[in-house]
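Worked example 3 (structure in, sequence out).
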């Protein structure tokens, strides 16, 4: 008996010691993990416990519990009212004016939406170049393993290059030779489980609208969305997120989990939840796949409600794993105890159309694709070490603040080389401060937005209690000029969240001061502003007559030029750039076959604009701004109303386009320089010399045969890339589409 006591008592005390977690000092705690969950299009009022206007309809028990266990930022903002620029800005820590990504369909020639529209959006990048640093590359310096799961929309072209693994993520998706997208870890993405490898999980689009009442998940074994014991459809991205944590829990990790929910198409594979929300909303279960809530306000869409319910379940799965799993780096603790979890959204909730309303952001005005609060204000919650449960912070923040904040969590010093616009908000997360302090030690007072797109073309600023929207007269409500709203009252209470009371005329000194600061911000950024549309009805005959006409286009070797009318009352050209592409159809086999256009500098010499064609460019056009802010292009371009986006490639709209020869000439120059360098380093250049000779033959032809020209460019590009002893092989334009077999 005595021996048994000697055995049992120590075990009991040991269990008690484990049950009572030691109180580690912050300096003794291992580097904290970071889990960032960015939901697609989740609105500020979509989480049940956050709803301040009417009774909650959507059921979000996991996010409600998260709110109680963490800290909620009630005035958090996305960097943009649409997804791609917000995601790029988060990953880069910069405003869209500095990333160059303004919306979702970039990398194309600027043209009017329709003839009657007042302004034309400027050129902007489709995605962030691979050369730009992102969060995972910086965290790697502190020993972090990084993983990305789900929506990307931060790369170029249709398929997304640069992919997550191109930008520093250890785990993420990529492609090889233009093939299907895949995740780069066979333990987590097993080709043998092909029927379960649904890339986008249960969100996987239901291709035909009529199928949204027939593609529900079942218990059938071969159903790739097979229902689990709780009648939830299998969701592969959720499993990948948990799998990444499971595999890397013995080291500090950063997970960027981006569910494709709750973005459209608006449908669900979860019949049980659809039945639930139809019942809650008093709607009979549909027999027709059409809209169930035409013209109705409020949370009245059962398809969308089911999607919100599903993403809440998915997030709950990840949190549950963190709460139940022992931390191998922190004995006696669970992973949750040393993990910062952030849940947010890439923009405000999508309102939908009159035919099918989606969500309702009330009392906020507007929604996704607008610069009003409904489009910019997002849910933002965080749990983690030092975070007070069930607390709130009213200080305005933005997603670009997460880059420097993650650096602080990782123990990395601020690096001015990164040129971050965001500020470290860890003191706010931990409740140690109510101010956002910039790297210079001063309080940040202003946040900026630049969204020059047709849905709501405006430049926006939040400063203290005030918000200024300088409307350019295009899109939502068709407003022109500044609007000023008091978002928060002087006493700190909630102000004009609905942005109903424009105070621009009542407080002219505030309006003008903010306008001046906003314009200075734009000037320092060097951003290209929208152009006036010469076809707009408000343009006078005198102004229209002042627009210079293109007289000639030409080229000599790798130089291209355009000559314009001058003299008299013709307005001067004050800004010029050459836009070029390298991947028309003969160089593009990937999904969507999207041409991507890039900018190159141009020089204005009186009536002549000149530029050097970049190596391998196949087509180009000049994009010019005159003194009256009108857009001129070297060749006329149709409106999007005349030729819809994606129906015809930009290069096919051009009659001239400086096709092939100038870009080939530039590529030959690069190849000759590479040949000289390689010879100097004692390397064999026979293959490169042969490719140069083949390309020079194409320069001499009178009539371009596209196939022959493209073969010459493709071969020469390949020979330069593979030439030993020449640094020219690393030219960034030669590396632009590394997964494209035809490039």
């Amino acid at each position: 008996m005595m021996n048994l006591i000697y055995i049992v008592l120590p075990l009991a005390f040991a269990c008690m010691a484990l049950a009572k977690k030691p109180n580690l000092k912050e300096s003794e705690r291992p580097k904290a993990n970071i889990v960032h969950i960015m939901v697609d299009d989740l609105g500020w009022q979509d989480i049940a416990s956050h709803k301040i206007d009417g009774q909650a309809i959507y059921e979000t028990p996991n996010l409600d519990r998260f709110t109680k266990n963490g800290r909620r930022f009630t005035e958090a903002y996305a960097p943009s009212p649409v997804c791609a620029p917000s995601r790029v800005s988060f990953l880069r820590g910069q405003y869209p004016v500095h990333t160059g990504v303004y919306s979702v369909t970039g990398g194309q020639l600027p043209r009017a939406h329709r003839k009657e529209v007042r302004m034309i959006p400027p050129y902007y990048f489709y995605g962030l170049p691979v050369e730009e640093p992102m969060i995972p590359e910086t965290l790697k310096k502190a020993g972090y393993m990084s993983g990305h799961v789900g929506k990307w929309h931060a790369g170029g072209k249709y398929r997304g290059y640069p992919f997550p693994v191109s930008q520093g993520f250890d785990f993420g998706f990529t492609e090889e030779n233009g093939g299907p997208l895949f995740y780069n870890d066979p333990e987590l993405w097993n080709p043998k489980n092909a029927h379960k490898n649904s890339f986008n999980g249960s969100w996987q689009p239901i291709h035909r609208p009529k199928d949204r009442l027939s593609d529900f998940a079942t218990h059938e074994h071969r159903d790739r969305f097979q229902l689990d014991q709780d009648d939830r459809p299998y969701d592969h991205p959720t499993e990948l997120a948990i799998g990444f944590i499971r595999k890397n829990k013995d080291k500090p990790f950063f997970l960027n989990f981006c569910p494709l929910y709750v973005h459209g198409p608006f449908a669900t594979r979860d019949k049980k939840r659809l039945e639930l929300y139809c019942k809650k909303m008093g709607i009979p279960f549909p027999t027709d796949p059409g809209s169930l809530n035409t013209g109705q306000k409020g949370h009245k869409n059962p398809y969308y409600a089911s999607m919100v319910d599903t993403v809440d379940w998915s997030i709950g799965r990840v949190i549950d794993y963190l709460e139940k799993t022992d931390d191998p780096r922190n004995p006696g603790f669970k992973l949750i105890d040393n993990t910062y979890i952030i849940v947010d959204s890439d923009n405000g909730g999508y309102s939908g159309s009159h035919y099918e309303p989606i969500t309702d952001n009330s009392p906020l005005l507007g929604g996704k694709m607008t610069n009003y609060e409904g489009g910019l204000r997002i849910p933002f919650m965080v749990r983690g070490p030092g975070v007070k449960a069930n607390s709130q912070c009213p200080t305005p923040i933005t997603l670009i603040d997460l880059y420097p904040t993650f650096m602080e969590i990782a123990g990395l010093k601020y690096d001015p080389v990164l040129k971050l616009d965001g500020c470290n908000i860890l003191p706010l997360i931990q409740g140690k401060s109510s101010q956002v302090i910039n790297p210079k030690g001063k309080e940040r007072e202003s946040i900026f937005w630049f969204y020059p797109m047709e849905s709501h073309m405006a430049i926006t600023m939040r400063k203290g209690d005030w918000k200024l929207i300088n409307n350019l007269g295009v899109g939502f409500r068709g407003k022109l000029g500044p609007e000023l709203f008091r978002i928060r009252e002087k006493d700190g209470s909630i102000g004009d969240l609905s942005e109903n009371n424009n105070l621009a005329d009542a407080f002219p000194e505030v309006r003008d001061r903010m306008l001046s600061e906003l314009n200075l911000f734009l000037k320092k950024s060097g951003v290209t502003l929208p152009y006036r549309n010469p076809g707009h009805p408000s343009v006078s005959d005198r102004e229209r007559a002042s627009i210079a006409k293109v007289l000639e286009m030409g080229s000599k070797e790798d130089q291209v030029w355009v000559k314009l009318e001058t003299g008299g009352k013709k307005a001067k050209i004050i800004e010029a750039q050459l836009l070029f592409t390298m991947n028309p159809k003969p160089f593009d086999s990937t999904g969507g076959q999207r041409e991507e256009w890039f900018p190159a500098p141009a020089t204005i010499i009186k009536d002549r604009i000149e530029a050097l064609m970049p190596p391998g460019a196949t087509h180009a056009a000049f994009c010019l701004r005159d003194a009256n802010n009108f857009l001129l292009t070297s060749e006329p371009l149709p409106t999007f109303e005349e030729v819809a986006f994606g129906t015809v490639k930009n290069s096919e709209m051009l009659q001239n386009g400086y096709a092939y020869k100038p870009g080939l000439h530039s590529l030959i120059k690069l190849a000759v320089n590479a040949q000289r360098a390689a010879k100097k380093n004692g390397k064999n250049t026979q293959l490169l010399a042969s490719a140069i000779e083949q390309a020079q033959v194409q320069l001499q032809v009178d009539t371009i045969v596209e196939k022959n020209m493209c073969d010459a460019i493709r071969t020469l590009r390949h020979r330069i890339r593979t030439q030993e002893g020449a640094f020219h092989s690393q030219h960034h334009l030669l590396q632009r589409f590394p997964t494209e077999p035809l490039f």
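Notes: DSSP finds 16 helices and 26 strands in the chain. The chain has a mean pLDDT of 93.
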